[in-house]
Specification:
The protein contains 23 helices and 22 strands. By secondary structure, the chain is an alpha+beta fold. Helix 1 runs antiparallel to helix 2.
Length: 646
């Protein structure tokens, strides 16, 4: 049988998953078997006083639970690498030599259990990525030769027509060519409310068609879908280590051999120098070896970072590495683009003013003229007129006047709709004072008239996001400065600044000038997070300490340029992001301080002879490791939206 490359890949993934499941089952059996024998060994020694039998049972526990640990430790030692495994091997063997085989067996068993819990924690984090990829179906119902056939998604090409039934998951990215429905995009954006989609709208692999029948034209192959790109971003982010993680890695590299030499010193120096009993100090040295195991310290940061990254992904926030989580906790300035970020990037009519008292009559003419134009202003005006249930009239001799407006005839009379430059050209007096009132509010003014006079005006403004004001206020409560950098004019930018309460604004900036503004802010020792749409703002996003792209769903540019991508157009996710960063920072500090404090306390107790091997591994290693892991998982409970994590 000949396999296609994709089939080979899937078979390898399936085999890997089966191997992982087998390994987990095997380890659980080892824990149950070794744990049961260990209990019997303790009972035999302390209740029946059969010391030799208890030591034999303890040796079985070491072989069952520790054979792989000892092999790996010895192999690494041959390669001149001193690892935690060799610490446990020396401690276990040494305990048998001095007649504490039960404790040595306990050391090895509890260390194996700690390793199992570490693997479980890492596996839990990996599964968040795996589950993300499994939300898209493997097969699609494709139109071929006049009929619909079930094909593997890898065999579907760009341009193919795919059928999507109610309740089915969408297999590939595409454009709707037939039907309409509510589509649940929670898997990508974290948004629980389905989005209504109709002909011409884009849909994405892994989202769910809630109720209607849809047909889509495929726009991306399975390896190019938004879902596939998100998976790549998450995988890459898991490999990007923060400064704290790199420090802990380097620390552990020198820490382990140092502790081995210290343990040897403890075993040898006091007996030789002060004629103290070798037995007691060898036991203390072995205990010190067990205590020195840096599992909890090594786990303190990476488990927390992975938990933070996956918590963000569940909320529709893609973070490209732990270092950005750390950097966000230092941010003291948020720089926002205006259009498409603080505003929705869609104009809406705010005011309609008539100078002749016949607004309904001339609005029909305006609607007829603007319906023939493709300009965004025209579309906004037509929508507002239709909302008033006014029917646009039929226009003749339509003409688009570039940069100024439109003109056309109705009932043999010529009419004009446009800016002040258009009416200045035809020699009509402009109501400058009235226009200025609306322009000061940051609105775009469109005049309506003929060659004799102006009938009225329509004032439009880019719609400010409803959540923008509360987000700016939430930043102020965190003592974070807000800045707007925009290519728009001073009046518009100032009006939005006053409405939202933004601290500082820069206006009429080109993309390169936005980048220079960010550079200057950083030179002033400000840690800047730039929030933009990921397209025109790409240079500024790349220059900032943390670049955050809004509305990443469907945007290839934002996935490539930004450090953090908010998959939906919701500014409140910035506060969720800060909550994740803040909570991660707090938990990492807690884990590090806790792990170090317990280790130091246990070292002191060991020197005083108040520590046993059981306590060292049961509390100092396994207990601390378990607490660190569970504490890291608390990041997944981060507060969503407006609010602050304590």
């Amino acid at each position: 049988m000949v396999f296609e490359p994709c089939e080979i890949c899937e078979e390898e993934i399936s085999l890997f998953e089966e191997a992982e499941e087998f390994k987990k089952t095997k380890n659980l059996l080892i824990i149950i078997t070794a744990g049961t024998i260990l209990v019997f060994a303790i009972l035999v020694e302390f209740i029946f006083h059969a010391f030799l039998l208890s030591q034999i049972l303890a040796a079985f526990v070491v072989l069952i639970s520790g054979i792989e640990i000892m092999k790996e430790g010895i192999l690494n030692l041959i390669k001149k690498k001193i690892t935690i495994n060799i610490l446990m091997t020396v401690a276990a063997i040494g305990s048998f030599i001095i007649g504490h085989g039960g404790e040595g067996a306990g050391v090895m068993f509890l260390y194996f259990l700690a390793e199992f819990l570490e693997d479980y924690a890492a596996d839990r984090s990996r599964k968040s990525v795996t589950s993300l990829m499994k939300i898209a179906p493997d097969v699609a119902i494709v139109q071929r030769d006049g009929t619909y056939k079930e094909l593997h998604t890898h065999d579907v090409k760009v341009g193919d027509i795919v059928q999507i039934k109610p309740g089915a998951s969408i297999p590939l990215d595409g454009i709707i060519i037939r039907g309409s429905s509510s589509v649940n995009e929670a898997s990508l954006t974290g948004e629980s409310i389905p989005a209504f989609k109709q002909v011409g709208d884009e849909v994405f692999a892994g989202t769910v068609n809630s109720e209607g029948y849809l047909e889509i034209r495929v726009t991306k192959t399975s390896d190019q879908t938004l879902l596939a790109k998100i998976k790549n971003v998450i995988n890459e982010s898991l490999e990007q280590k923060s400064k704290t993680e790199r420090f802990i890695d380097n620390f552990a590299r020198y820490y382990t051999p140092t502790m081995i030499f210290l343990a040897i010193f403890v075993m040898v120096f006091p007996p030789l120098t002060f004629q103290l009993p070798f037995y007691d100090w060898i036991y203390r040295g072995l205990t010190l070896l067990v205590i020195s195991c840096p599992c909890a310290l090594a786990l303190s940061t990476p488990i927390s970072m992975v938990s933070a990254l996956t918590s963000g992904a569940k909320n529709g926030i893609l973070i490209k590495g732990g270092r950005y989580i750390e950097e966000l906790n230092k941010v003291n300035t948020f720089a926002f683009d205006k259009t498409g970020t603080l505003t929705e990037g869609a104009l809406e009519v705010k005011d309609i003013i008539s100078f002749n008292g016949q607004a309904e009559q001339w609005l029909g003419i305006v609607g007829g003229l603007e319906a023939l134009s493709e300009h965004p202003i025209s579309k906004a005006i037509v929508t507002a007129i239709k909302d008033k249930n006014i029917t646009p009239v039929s226009i003749e001799n339509f003409k688009a006047i570039i940069g100024k407006g439109v003109s056309g005839s109705f009932n043999g009379k010529e009419f004009y709709v446009g800016n002040e430059a258009l009416f200045q050209d035809i020699g009509v007096k402009i109501p400058e004072e009235t226009m200025e009132i609306y322009q000061k509010e940051g609105k775009t003014v469109v005049l309506i008239g003929n060659k004799q006079k102006v009938f009225g005006l329509i004032a439009l403004r880019d719609k400010v996001r409803r959540e923008a004001k509360s987000v700016i206020q939430a930043l102020k409560k965190r003592d974070i400065k807000s800045i707007m950098i925009s290519g728009d004019n001073q009046r518009t930018v100032t009006a939005i600044q006053q409405f939202l309460g933004i601290d500082e604004v820069y206006y009429e900036l080109k993309p390169q000038e936005k980048q220079e503004t960010i550079k200057n802010l950083i030179k002033q020792d400000q840690v800047v997070a730039m929030v933009g749409d990921g397209v025109n703002d790409a240079p500024a996003l790349a220059t900032s300490n943390v670049g955050i792209a809004m509305g990443g769903i469907g945007s290839d540019v934002s996935l490539e340029t930004a450090d953090v991508i908010l998959m939906k157009d919701d500014l409140t996710e910035l506060i969720t992001l800060l909550n994740i960063s803040s909570k991660s920072h707090g938990i990492i500090k807690e884990n590090i301080y806790f792990a170090i404090s317990v280790k130091l306390l246990f070292v002191i107790l060991t020197f005083l002879g108040l520590m046993t091997l059981w306590m060292a591994v049961g509390i100092g290693d396994l207990g601390v490791t378990l607490i660190v892991i569970l504490n890291a998982f608390r990041i997944s409970l981060v507060k969503k939206g407006i609010g602050r994590e304590k």
